Amino acid sequence: MEDMVRAFSALGNRRRFKIVVSLLESGGITVGEISRWHRIHQTAASRHLRKLEIAGLVRGEQRGPHVYYSAEVDSSSLAIRSILGIIKRSPKRRVK
Q: Which residues contact 32 (CB under 8 A, 6 or more apart)?
């Protein structure tokens, strides 16, 4: 239950929700790409990613000099997998 509370708390922020949608659509992107796509400063993108990572919704993977972030669709938590699955399957997941 605690993982659901953390996930919903993190997704309650519109920017973080949009970032999760981007990660589900792209597969894996860097902080710089997230920053450009969402027109936010890299520091802000990093903070949002950190909160999403703590909530168990995303993970980062070091590849050379960059960290690629992706949605944690293979999470050991059924709640996290379910939440991400619902977002991914939603036909109207684009948030303005």
A: 42, 66
